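Name: Desulfoferrodoxin N-terminal domain-containing protein
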Amino acid sequence: MAKKEQTYFCEICRQKVVVIEEGFGVLVCCGKEMNLVGVKGMMATWTAAHHKPANGVAFVCNVCKQKIKVIEETTGILECCGQRMHREEAPDYK
Ligand SMILES: [Zn+2]
Ligand SMILES: [Zn+2]
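Structure predicted for Desulfoferrodoxin N-terminal domain-containing protein:
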């Protein structure tokens, strides 16, 4: 189960997201469970490639209320609890 501030990525489309609200659902992208990125690895990647994380788009699951922020956006379809997550425009999560 995802925990707040964990980073997940999709090994198929390379989409990368951060959990901002925990839910019980499993994060899925491209029809496959997303992979948890280790905290150290995430910080290293973050520092190297994301000086200013894009002002994000967030996605929320209507079933478990899990909310994620997209760091690397791709065309991959994000799902949780067996359904597509809903996009939220211009949230202000820091
Ligand atoms: Zn994907
Ligand atoms: Zn869910």
